[in-house]
Amino acid sequence: MLRTPQDQKSKTKNSKIALYKIVILLTLSALCLTDVWAAVLVLEERPQGQRAEGYLSVLRDPSGRLDFDQVRERSFTPLAGQVGFGFTRDAIWLKLDVHENAGAVKPDNGHWWLEVALPSLDDLRLYVPDADGHYQMTRSGNHQPFTERPLAHRLFLFPLKLPGPGTYSLYLRVSTGDSLAVPVRLWGSQSLRERIANENLWLGISYGIILGMLIYNTFLWSVLRDSLYGFYVITCLTSLMVILELNGHAYQYLWPTNLWLADYQHVLLPALHFIALSWWTRRFLDTLRQAPVFDLALRTIMLAALGMIALAIAGQYSLGNQLAFWVGATMTLLIFVATLRVLWRGYRPARLFLLAQFAPLTGALVTLARALGIAPDALWAEHAFQTGVSLEMMLFSLALAQRIELLRQEKQQAQQRAETDPLTGLFNRDGLLRRVNDLRDRQTPYALMVVDLDHFKPVNDQLGHEAGDAVLIAVAERLRALVRAEGDSVARIGGDEFVLILRGITQEADAGVVAAKLLKSLASTIPTPAGEARIGASIGMALAPTDGQQLSRLLQPELFIKKGESRLTN
Hints:
Protein name: Diguanylate cyclase
Transmembrane segments: 201-221, 228-244, 264-281, 293-317, 323-340, 352-372, 384-401
Strand content: 15-25%
Radius of gyration: 41 Å
Shape: elongated
Helix content: 40-55%
Structural class: alpha+beta
Keywords: Membrane, Transmembrane, Transmembrane helix
Low-confidence stretches: 1-38, 561-568
Largest sheet: 7 strands, mixed
Distance between the termini: 149 Å
């Protein structure tokens, strides 16, 4: 039978289609085989351990009553990505298939370690097969005394003693009243030891920063007796306690046998921190005066935190824990907006206060990015949040120092205004009194000169008060020009009465030289808006402590009358 060219083309086309189908089938088969192989985690000694995400399967037990034999008969659902279930009352069963190669390098002590890196979980039970095919259960969690943990560590670490090379199924049961997440990682012994050592160094630095700020500001509080330092110290202390709680060190070191605190610390410590931080913010930003609406909102946050404590005491842990999330998120937003409000009104220390709030927020974002695989799986990324909290406390301390300095400057300026003559800028009587008292306390001798202007009343009467003011300002400038920049002082204590303090002068002759220069300076005419004015002056002198130490004594008229030779007139 003859075949046309058209038939040959058709046959060639069908052959290509069949070939394509075979290639596609082989590709899909390879992918399926890859998936099957990927479902088993091959144990290896790695510096960062081996994360179990992508290898886990899950079974939810809403009743929490399934035993291990019943669970093994059930089918598990593969999990992709992070193992998080939020707030749930279900018991979560996880299945992990691991494979140990015959030629693999074993850990130096003969077994691996399984880590669950969330210290707030209540109950964990790991089932590992033995050489006889039976499963051995190891239990841990915050509902167990810390001393009963397989390894005394802030996280949950289970020894993984496998019978030998081969593939094994591991089962992990987890339940908690907190938000439930199960970050599982497997370690070799050497890499785990190195990890713990490096982690302790990183944690020590973070704790050290907070503790240093706490001790330093506690000392300042004891010395200065400023209540604002007290609010900062309490906030710093509660912040440290929250970090200890989040890392698992609070249960490990502070109350390892108190199961109630081990359970309810996740509500009580955040609640105390919310109260302290809200109170500190209100006092630092002065929200009662600067932002009354936000002050009321922060008071509400404090009441909600007290509600968290009441729920914990009443045994409503799960409800209190969920409330902690919403109270914390709301408080963070309120403090941020309140800071912007106060900063907009020109309060300079609010800039550092605002910057401090970005530190833990940035740390939380970095930690989240690490969990999502965006940031590198490194210690600095894992502990970025607590590093941010440490920086927050440091910036809060700097903001507090800036605020105290600002208050000091405002107080100094107010004191200067109270002790300064508004027309001439010289000391007034109060300022002169403080200066005399300072010299008396330091036992420093000085000469005091009283300058009475002559012919000043005619200036006011004939040229007007504006001209009189110009004369007084000119006299003040000439007096300043005659005294030394350091130590000497000039004051105006009456309408046309001035006082000079010449530090270190103990002889009337030396004071007389200055008095003569002063009389010569005041003898020249003074320009005013109404024309030139001419005045004179009478000068009286007294020496301290020879003639007395009290200002009232040194200004007595009879003192100058008695010492007539010290009464000079131009």
